[in-house]
Protein 1
Amino acid sequence: MRTRLSLLSAAAAAAALTLGACATSAPADGGQTADGTLKLGWLLPQTGPIASLGPPQIAALELAEKDINDAGGVLGKKVEFVGGDEAGDPAVASQAVDRLLSQGVPAIIGAGSSQISLSVIGKITGANVVQCSGMNTSPQLTDYPDNGYYFRTVPSDVLQGAVMGNLIAQDGATKVAILARSDAYATGLANTTEAKLKELGVQVVARVNYDPSAQNLTAEVRQVVDASPDAIVMFAFDEGAKLLQGLIQSGYGPDKVKTYGTDALPVASLPELVDANNKAVLQGMKLTQASSGENSPFTQRLLEYQPDLSTTAFSPYFYDCAVIIALAAEQAGSTEGPKIRDAIIGVTRDGTECGSFADCKKLISEGSDIAYVGAAGPLRFTDAGEPSTGLYDILQYDANGATKTLDTVREGTN
Amino acid sequence: MDLAAAGVDALRAAIAPATAAYALAALGLNLQFGYAGLLNLGHAGFMAVGAYGLATTVAVFGGGFWLGVAVGLAAAAAFGLLLGMPTVRLRADYLAITTIAASEILRFVLRSGWAQPWTGGVYGLQRFAEEFYALNPFATSNNYAIGPVVVDARTLWLMVVGWALVAAAAVLLVLLLRSPWGRVLSSVRQDEDLARSLGKNVFAYKLQALVIGGVLGGVAGILLAVDQQNVNPDNYGSVVTFFVYTIVILGGAGRAMAPVTGAVVFWLVISATDSVLRQAVDSGTVSWSWFGPQQVGVARFVLVGLALMLIVVFRPQGLFTWRRRVRT
Amino acid sequence: MTNATVTATRAALPRRSVVVLLAVALGAAATAAFASPVQVAQATLDGARFGLVIALSGVGLSLIFATTGLFNFAHGEFVTFGAILAWLCNVMLGLPLTLAAAVAVIGGAAAGASVEYGIWRPLRRHGVGLVAAIVVSIGLAMFTRHLFLFFFHGQSRSYREYTVQQAWHLLGVQLLPKDLVTMLVALAALAALGIFLKRSRTGQAVRATADDPDLSQASGIATDRVVLLVWSLGGALAALGGVVLALDDQVSWDMGFRVLLLVIAGVTLGGLGTVRGAIAGGLIIGVVTQLSTLWAPSELKYVFALIALVAILIFRPQGIFGRAQRIG
């Protein structure tokens, strides 16, 4: 028995060491393959809770790939995207990242969810690979120690909170109740909104954080109602429908009280979810969202490319991620992660403005400094690698249950 | 359809650090469930406690990495004692409910705003394993190939450490189970009343099994946390416990090395199925209107649920020979 | 049980009911220190509604446990099944909700019967132990739940009727017509069940099987048929519970799973195997959950219910109305 045991332990130890020994070194080649293509990775929600937001981003990246290759590619190489599913699950996302990293990509575009990004950012940036997201808005990611490898083209929710706070104050609210889902997305946004309201001297009479996995939200609605607010803002996903039903039934619906939300709610189907028999049930409710340029040239082009998209939310931001990575590679003259990282901030500010990959590439070849103006507007990255300014749409539900864009607001320093 | 690529993906998942972590968790659960007969449905709680012990010590209190690991292990042991002392003497179903309730209570507390200063609340904690990665002997600018599988340097380092831990844990468990202690535990499982009548403190043995198994769960949690450099309460829901059960039962509950094989096979199959299904949908080989990309992600859970049922029923491997408890 | 014990237990019942009511009243009164009487009354009313839904959903679980010894972790899926079936009838087929609810109840009964006939009876025949059966139920739960996700998709949806209603106001407390209907329906169903169990011959056969399956079988009671009946009733009532749950909280693929732990807490607290226990336990859990939000952060509201569950299992596992049984 002793012999078998020591054999067993010896075998186990040997196996572990063999793993290390057998691993032959394969230098990271910046994702280049023999036939001269540059592979870039993406990590997007193909499945999971925000899967409905996946298709527009994938379409945007396909469009970017086309635009970049039509203009001659990056440093003479064609760009090819390889993708992975974040699946709303850190374990799955982690496996997808492993697969992408194994292909030697110098950059990964994604993830969609801030929470997933937080779970893979250590792995990606620790491998000296650039990460760029067009949908992560959590303020947590601004100061994350990522050695400069993490970027985002969509502004932090610090800005959206300010927009929301301003909107509520401008509408004349004096007693605001905040309903926030207890998760990384909503809590951050609620905090910044609350801070802005306080700064503007508007009283926050209730701040209710609810458990996302709770089936019943009656108590939370009661808490809001008990505070007798004249404005209610909710940071919720599809449980927002339940909340709205409860509020309406308690006499605090959008017809009685100023009501606000964000595009995390299922915007298109919300009125039907709340009351299928009354299209005007949410009339007057306002929403803020990171501007996807409803009728912008980019959105129109995207819809021409893929007409069956049900939403175009966040797509320009992901397009911009792809373009700035490509431009940074051009600028740096290299397709290696660290070099791209060093050049990205520079291509978004302090230079001659240009609006497309082709135009910017031409300017770079002439030796100019460029400042890429993205499909979602100028980026002007801060040193932390995110926009210092953001464009936000303010939408409002009408009597037919559809949303109309009331206004588009720019927030942040110019 | 690129089946070769799917195969490589599956292999990569099979030897990944996360798989090693699940193997450790399964070794621990096997001790609790397979050997001591404790239907612990709160194993995710042990993993959470280990992971947060490390993360809080380093990210919140600025302690060293190794201190964090020690805290994590101690916390897992403490959680085991706290959980076990009042509940080990309960019958299987009550123990099951108590452990799952305790695990959920823990999760709620970890994510609450009240606990945020120590646990990061809903944001969790990040960046607490730098010290560990600094010890990496493999050059970080390179990728490494193990057969057809290519991994980066960080992952390779973690794989070596992880699987070495699995080997060590398996060997220790085998030693433990062959010791007098292990023999008593075995007799308790076979006939508790007989063991008790021979003067063995059944309660103490079961509690010890719970704690030791729990500490292994804590190590698993630490390994997973180091892999992601991220802890989040929602990563430790009951689904994780159910996955570990599937692994234990797949490998054959009650046999020492079986959880390791179980973990490897589990992730191999899950990953292979995922890849194949994904490719089938992407390439248009499967184009039923009701089976799109959204459905692919669900497939793994359907498979796991099915596996759990079928394996328990058709290949119980000698675990389920207990006398049915007589009631009243 | 001897006559003396029976009489003693019978006398204890009203006393225990009074104790429960007093405890709830006391808890409500204590909360008044933190909130206005109207808020306390409102929370109690809301809690009573939620509690009755929990009781309705869980009484089947309780009876199944009492008659077969199986703790069915897949019980939440009956709840979801009922809600989804009603949704299909109401929204896709355009049936009025009352009719859809009836279809859901019948569907639930059929589901319960099929599961017993197709899975649990064969398992019992093959001598699969209770612990193994619990694990199978966990696998079944995961499998069914994700099948629901597969076909119903991830987003919650509403019924077509009774979505937004005008509330009645009595002394500052708000009551929705649908909530009143929910409570009455739940009470009626539970009362009918209770009367059935007490008065009818079949009901008495059920109680006999719950008390002592072997003796009942020896006395000529067709235990198999009794068990089939219990599963059908359990499935039917849980499906009804799902429909009324969805009236306020919408239909989603995991709604049953989300309330499962609370349902378990309710029936365990009240005492497994009794309808009275299910009602009492459900009410306590419902009211405790709602009242707690008046003085604690609402993200923690389920923690208190879970703590009550753990406490009851440690100190009085038979619950309030259950009989003391061998617990180890």
Protein 2
Amino acid sequence: MKKVYLHTLTIRCWHWINAAIIILLTITGIQLRAPGTEIFAKSLGIWVPNYTNAVLIHKYAGFALAAAFLFWLVYVIISGSYLRHYLFRPSDIPVMVRQARYYVIGLFKGEKNPFVSTPQGKFNPLQKLTYGVVLPFVILVLIVTGIPFSNIFFFRDTIESFGGIRMLDALHVIAAYLCLLNFLVHLYMTTMGHHIFDHIKAMIVGYEEEEEEEEH
Amino acid sequence: MRFLLLVFLFLASPLWAIPTQENCTDCHGDVKKTASHQGVSCNDCHTEIAAFPHKEKPAPPTCSKCHSNASDSFKKSVHTDKGLNCISCHNVHNAIKANDCTSCHSKSSHATLPSRAKHLATLNCTACHGVPEKSGVTATIILPAGASLNKKDVDNDGNGFIDETEWHALEYLLEHKFKGSRIDRQYWSYGNIHGITPKPADCSECHEKRTRFATATAKINGEAGYSIPMEPGIFIPEFPSLHDFEKTVHGKQGVTCTDCHTSQQKISDGVCILCHEKVYHTYKDSLHGKQGSALCTDCHNPHLIKSYKEYNAKQRVAVCSRCHKDYISKHKWLPNTALHFKYLECTSCHSPGSEKSMVFFFQKKSGDKKTALNYVDIEGAFGHDIKVQSVINKYTEDILKGNDIGNLLQDLNKKMNNSVSIDAEIVVTKVHHDYSVTRLKEKDCVVCHSAQASFYNSAYLNLPGKEEHVYAPVKGTVLSTYPLAMAMDIYLLGEQKITRDDLSTLLHKAPEDWTSYIKGLGFKLIDLAGICLLILALLGCMVHALLRILVVKR
């Protein structure tokens, strides 16, 4: 086994702060979408904020998400990380197909993962597509549609340009469901390392344990 | 010789004749002084005694030299007219308290005083017989040891004032959540106790005009004690006055005292039924009437009966919360409970037969407080003795529309330094007395948060008139008034959320009906698709994980 340095300290800190924000937004977002959730949660003995606080937390956590997103964007562009790790190239398409085939079939046949993370490229093409294109777009939609909700009177002209508050709400909620979907799959995919907690451990310490490649 | 003459003159001078304290006690050795007069010598009060031997009956001491304020008040009091003086009550030569009122008025029966025992137990004599400079009620809430009461549970709406509805909710909370707590009420007054008036204060001074006991404060003791001002009317109920009765609905309709008070007995529903037969039967046949067994007068004060249109939502809630003190805790399921009760009355939900409307009103901001505009404000803006209808006519000859109200608001703001804003309540505008519906199982936001809610079709602008409020009908809704539309629209977003009912209806539909039902869901499709997607993803992950455990060989 060898140790590969994949995640810089900055990215690790950003990741866990972002995770905390997303968790807060998910809990309070569910409360806003389905009022009464707090009563159900309390009946199960789970603490959640009351509705008024949920609205406030959602608002300020939303701003925090916007700040975190901006930080990530600036950091990955300036550090060259986007080019190195996130940029999806046409040459990635055949690998992406192989990667998808591996998750669906190859894994169960005992085949080896066609992609191995290296400091030169830590994401497989499926991850590149998700983390480099789809997720930034979804988060951007969430932020752009979420900010006008923070003060509907101040942003009234913006809201009108979106086609009214109902359309704005629809876009925000669609993006939220997609984000939640990613969150769910992301959580499951963390278990796909060499050992079940390897990916999580790597996001804490920065190093991932990988099998040594056989010499030919 | 000259020297002897000088010595003689000096010895004969009056300076030697002024008695000293020691001289006085030579004869009056048994005389003592109260603690407050310890530093005062005999001559300071008994100024007439300048030489020995003094007159057998010297003039009374001159208390006014030091106690001028008390003395001046006393001179105008009924006690002076009766020939009393300071020492009639204050015995300064004995270390005992001043005589209290009962020393002379021991047989004062107060036979004609209503609620005699309560008044005598709670008030001091000068509260009514004097002219108190300050007076009020302090309700001290004593919590069990170690307990503390959150300020938000006392002042639900956070406006720094406890109104009647909040007090009812607090009483319920103390009774059920703070066993062993108690409320000590103190009716205090102090100030000029020497100006006893010939006649006691009229009942109206406390119970109507509120020139005495006009303030009340709740003091919450506990780990972090605090005080909040509160409505004094909670402790000192309003008194039926003949003057005000004429302004009430009953008074205006020509109802006289003897129409209801046919005997000395407390009036029963049998009296009300004489005029309100239909309403009476509606109410008595309802579940509330049968189980609650409340009399008409339990909710309605016949001496102050106002049209319900004169009450705002909070004042209406105060009527129900007299018995339903637990209304806050019963509505914990409702998000923003306090906010809802600011804009709704109980019967907005619990009386389906009543007609509800969206009633708009203007309010002015003064400091941190917002209060509804009154007739004086309307006069200030549009002229003395103005008729409200003529104000409305300035903006439209027809029914008011959103823009007309916007223009009216703009003009009010010009006259009132931009302090006026518009607000709205959902209240009953046509009462039906059946309050049987508890709606225990119906907790659906969309009943109100929907463009289909009935009150959107019935809107009024409430303006304060000289004698009564005027409800001017508003065409359509005021929702088009900018930027109110935005605010209203956000509350209608509830319609876009899928509910449990929607899902269960979908599950109970036959497969062939699904398509048409799903098409009709509109924006709710987002939730439906989102939830399905999440469930599928979750199932996918679970199946994948299971296969990994069972199949993958490492």
